[in-house]
Amino acid sequence: MAHGLKIVKTPLPVIAWQRVTNHLTGYAASGISIIAIMVFSSKVTGVDNIS
Questions:
Q1: pLDDT digits (tens, 9 = 90+) for 3-41
Q2: Which secondary-structure segment (H or E) carries 26?
Q3: Could you give the CA distance from residue 12 to residue 20 in angstroms, rounded to a whole number?
Q4: What domain of life does the native source organism fall in (predicted)?
Q5: What pTM does this model have?
Q6: CB 15: neighbour CB atoms within 10 A?
Q7: Handedness of CA 4, 5, 6, 8 (dihedral sign)
Q8: What is the Cα–Cα distance from 19 to 16, expressed in whole angstroms?
């Protein structure tokens, strides 16, 4: 009984934490892609754009 209730009822902090981690992973993925594009463009043009 208790195990079933634990599965059905998810605490709000857990939901909030999952949303935060989803946002953080999204920001990290976009940041990594931007850095990769900057590095790639700097290698193609031969100019170091990252300061």
A1: 555 556 778 888 889 999 999 999 999 999 999 998 888
A2: helix 12-45
A3: 12
A4: Bacteria
A5: 0.43
A6: 10
A7: positive
A8: 5
